[in-house]
Amino acid sequence: MRGPNEIDFWRGFALLTIFIDHVPGLVFSNYTMRYFGLCDAAELFVFLAGWSLRLLMDGRKEPMSLPSAVMRLETRAMTIFFAQLIITQMALALTAAGSIWLENPVFLEWNNASAAFEDPLQTQVGIVLLSHQMGFFDILPLYVVLIAGAPLCVISDRVRKWLPLVLALALYGVILTTGVNLPTWPVEGRWYFNPFAWQLVFVLGYMLADARGPMAALRRHRHTLRWLGLAGVAVGVVIGVTDYSPDPLAVPEPKLFFMFDKTFATPARILHLLALVALFNGLFDHIVAWIAPLARFFSILGRNSLYVFCVGSLVALASQFGRFVMGGSILVDSLVLLVGIISMGVTAWIVEWRMRSRAS
User: Fold this and answer.
1) Closest CA relative to residue 195, chosen from 212, 211, 180
2) CA distance 174 to 338
3) Is residue 13 classed as helix, strand or coil in its secondary structure?
4) Cα dihedral 75, 120, 87, 358 sign
5) Residue 62 — very low, low, confident or very high, per pLDDT cuts 50/70/90?
6) Which pLDDT tens digit goes with each residue over 129-151?
7) Which of 60, 83, 175, 230 has its CA 20 to 30 A from that of 126?
């Protein structure tokens, strides 16, 4: 089992942040990334997925063969796909149980769940097609598409080192210009996370992680980039604190290039993410020196991210019902946070205990 490292640490940080943000009204959500900038934990999570892909493909001794890479990525995408089906069904069951137990049919309308109870036949098909997604359970479908399409990134990288970024930017530009997105069904709408736009976040992580690639030269200017990152983060904090947002009627076409839209991962959000990366890159060494227990805890969450995310999402949904019944107070919110931290930590520990047991 690998020890604490920077990627796992920040992935664990993102998982805990996602849990907090998935309980609307939680007092601690006023202090997460999304309230102090333009991007949030979702961008960080996807960026780190791209970074991890690079480390996996390059390997410790030699690069992974292309057939092995394709098989590894497609089986991973399949695993995430099945995880999405399971937690969606569990979330629907939890929603129904909350409605029955508390005798409140309003719960059936929360988080885009109503279609599953009003039109179960079509909705069950939509869940399998990933065209029906519950609120707060919609990031794994994005992840399925990104990982399933990741072999294209790997193949193009081995053809020309700049090619993945060129292709990603070209697709991103087309999507922001046209506004194309995947449709949802049977509830009419569009995916909350547009995979054609979010692929750029993923590819940027993949490209920046390459220690020998065309973007490796940036590492030589880390000190300068840190100051630029500080300036970018400061601008994002001002925008977040003042709740500024561009007027859609005042910006020129194509409007998505100038908006702060999460669905399309618009440029301002990506620039703020890159500023955060530039500023906090390398901080992990200091965190290990100062607060090693925190580094170990976040790292164990990050090492087992899929399991932790699934459990955290279900606990967050249950917490929504709990806060509705008990009301929002600092005591209740602290209990919710404590239960979430313990649940995710125990999940990660059980997964690693099982892996150690199998290995021995």
Assistant:
1) 180
2) 44
3) helix
4) negative
5) confident
6) 999 999 999 999 999 999 999 99
7) 175
